[in-house]
Amino acid sequence: MDQPRIAPATLIAADFEQIYQDDDHLLSHCRVENTTIPATPIVHPMLEQVYFKNVNFSGRTFERLELTDVIFDGCDFSNCHFEGASIFRTRFTGCKLIGVDLTKAVLNNVSFDQCRLDLAILCEMKWKVVNFTACALTDASIMQDHFTRVKFDHCQLDKVAFNQTKLKGVDLSSCSFDRLDLEAAMARGMTVNLYQAANLAAYFNGIHVK
Predict the structure, then answer these.
(1) What is the DSSP letter of 164?
(2) Does the pTM of the predicted model rise above 0.90?
(3) Which residues have C-beta within 8 Å of that of residue 161, sequence separation ≥ 6?
(4) Reading across the β-sheet that carries 126-133, which strands appear in turn?
(5) Membrane-spanning residues where (predicted)?
(6) Tens digits of per-residue pLDDT, 55-65?
(7) φ and ψ at 201, to 5 degrees?
(8) Of 50, 87, 175, 183, which residue is the least packed, with the fewest Cβ within 10 Å?
């Protein structure tokens, strides 16, 4: 995975509201910390080489958001609307993304570490080299997505809906779930552990395992 090309210690502090004043809605080469983002919606905002720490985005709408070489540390994106986003070489660490809507987003070289994505809407997306580590995605919806080198490592995936999404090559064996919502044909080539296999057998075939 390509890491964000950014050195947070070298960046100067900035006010996020600068993006509203820029004709291209561009914010780049800066740090934004310990603040709440204004409720004003933005169409096609672009963030490049920006470090965010403890920033509250909750409930905000950014249509066609573009992120390149961005780091989010301890930020809150609960119930945000980022439909059609393009996210490239970006890292989310300890972030809250409960109920976030990323419909039709494109993710390329993106990592989520110790994040909450419960109830997230992750539909009609393209994922290329995306890692989830120690994340919670309970009740998330993943529908009509295309996966390329997607990893789930020690994640909570209970009641995730993998609908019309091929899981060939995806390894869920280190993850926790009692139930997944998925079609048998889409699960071919997926890796699970023995306990998970028993649960899936019961789900697909109505078998009761003691």
Answers:
(1) S
(2) yes
(3) 139, 140, 141, 142, 143, 180, 181, 182
(4) 12-13, 26-36, 46-56, 66-73, 86-93, 106-113, 126-133, 146-153
(5) none
(6) 999 999 999 99
(7) -60, -40
(8) 183
Q: Is 72's pLDDT higher than 60? A: yes
Residue 187 DSSP class: G
Q: How far apart, in Å, are the Cα atoms of 105 and each of 15, 130, 169?
A: 26, 13, 21
Strands 181-182 and 62-63: unpaired
Q: Which tokens in the block code for residue 43?
A: 């169409």
On whether the CB atoms of residues 79 and 59 are closer than 8 A, the answer is: yes
Taking the C-alpha atoms of residue 113 and residue 91, their distance in angstroms, rounded to an integer, is: 8
Provide the residue type at 111 as one letter. Answer: S
Q: Residue 136 to residues 33, 75, 130, 132: CA-CA distances in angstroms?
A: 25, 15, 15, 9
Q: Closest by alpha carbon to 99, among 144, 72, 157, 59?
A: 59
Instruction: Please tell me the distance from the alpha carbon of residue 139 to that of residue 64, in angstroms, as a whole number.
Output: 25
Condensed to tens digits (0 to 9), the pLDDT of residues 92-145 reads 999 999 999 999 999 999 999 999 999 999 999 999 999 999 999 999 999 999
Buried b (16+ CB within 10 A) or exposed e, 166-190: bbeebebeebebeebebeeeebeeb
If you compute the radius of gyration of the chain from its CA atoms, what whole number of angstroms results?
18
CATH topology (fold) of 8-205: Pectate Lyase C-like (2.160.20)
